[in-house]
Amino acid sequence: MKYFRNIWHQSKQLGFNPVHWLGVGLGSGLVPVAPGTVGSAVAVLWAWFQAPLSLIIKLSIVAVAFVLGIFICQQTAKALNQSDPGAVVWDEIVALVFVLALVPPEWQWWLVAFLFFRLFDIVKPWPIRDLDHSLHNGLGIMLDDIMAAIYAVIATTLANIIWITSIAKFFSKPLTDVDIF
Fold this sequence. Notes:
Blueprint: H1 2-14, H2 18-23, H3 35-50, H4 55-79, H5 90-102, H6 107-123, H7 128-134, H8 138-172
């Protein structure tokens, strides 16, 4: 019951302001458990709809969403009286859309990218943690997730290269060509 009161309280704080509702990912950030992960799932939907577009258009959309996100996240955090509330998931959404624009457009690689992004966003390895702790505004909210996105793109690309160069080659050989001994 406590969770529902918290959702009700946060939604009352946001009112009907469209900027705030974008900030909480159309309500996905208001879920009581793992709002960043739920918000990231919204990003998959967004990325799926823009998948047919060219890379330059996808990245342009992400750039505009990032710049708008500085304002959106700042205003929504202010409305919730917190510096970086978990309910604000616009940063996760934009960052994961960025990742999915840069990885192979296959569900397996999108899943790998999603998992890497969530890992880096939660664990916050250097310098993500420093960004998260040093900037307490809309830019800081957006930047730590973009940095996690860059890490996720690198990790997914490396996983793809490893798959293509080793594992896929092994499984593509006929059984008689495989050297067991």
